[in-house]
């Protein structure tokens, strides 16, 4: 915006009043202008009276009258500000109530969806296991499609529930000294088969004498599951995924590195926002809810840590999170 446009906008009092949602006589900008004009008039009047009349009583009377008038205008300005503030507070309260209702609706809807989705998953698995021999190839293919679609829906429901809990402050985090290698090893072992299907090498290295961290073991596993699973998903066949730790002063940094597609620079700062997904030619066919990294960030921060990403398009990504070292350990 140019200097002239800025000045014009500043002195466009009617527009400011409309923006604040108050009438002209309650608009602080207008009242300030009036007060400024009154101040100038008061000074000139006092000067004129003092020059024309020698009576100090008259001068004092005029000054007192002007002071009373200025006090009244000042009070009106303060009252106008209070009205604006109250109006803004009412709008904020209304907005907070709408957000609360929305979060409550999402939580209830997701919670109610979880049961039927879980039941469908059970029946689909049962039909595949018991009817594999009897069912023809076409039916089996349809059942597998149902099972896969249901799995994605179940993941979405679980993610929505976790987001709703986080925003309502209901995520339970039990921080205690944890050997971080335990949940990481369990996660790597669980995902090795998935990596093998894509011919991806999944390696885990841990330094000796790694100190315990202050964390919730189950939540660390949840974080690791998301990051390692993502690394496998976004790495092409015959690629590599490395999981490692590094001790930095009073924290342990865990990194998940891959030589996959990489992330464009403009997308990196948005990665941890709700429902955000990177859309490139290589990743557009990869399925996901866009909630995983948001949840991971919430969990890491609630355990007193930080999470960040370093990536170069076409060369891979490294997601790292830090957790504080347990006092007295290492």
Can you give keywords for this protein?
60% helix, 330 residues, single chain
Q: Can you walk through the features of this model?
A:
This protein is α+β, with helices and mostly antiparallel strands and 330 residues long. It is 60% helix and 13% strand. The protein is built from nine helices and seven strands. It has helices at residues 3-11, 13-20, 28-52, 56-130, 137-167, 181-197, 217-233, 265-268, 292-302, and strands at residues 176-178, 201-205, 213-215, 240-248, 251-258, 306-312, 316-324. The strands form two sheets. It has a five-stranded mixed sheet. A two-stranded antiparallel ribbon has the order 1-3. β6 (306-312) and β7 form a beta hairpin. It starts with a helix and ends in a 6-residue tail after the last strand. 21% of the residues are buried. The mean pLDDT is 75.
Approximate helicity band: 55-70%
H-E order: HHHHHEHEEHEEHHEE
Oligomer classification: single chain
Largest sheet: 5 strands, mixed
Unreliable spans? none
Distance separating the two termini: 56 Å
How large, in whole angstroms, is the Cα Rg? 32 Å
β-strand percent reads: 5-15%
Principal-axis shape equals elongated
Q: Please state how the strands of the largest beta sheet are arranged side by side.
A: 2-4-5-7-6
In DSSP terms (H or I, runs of 4 or more residues), the helix count works out at 9
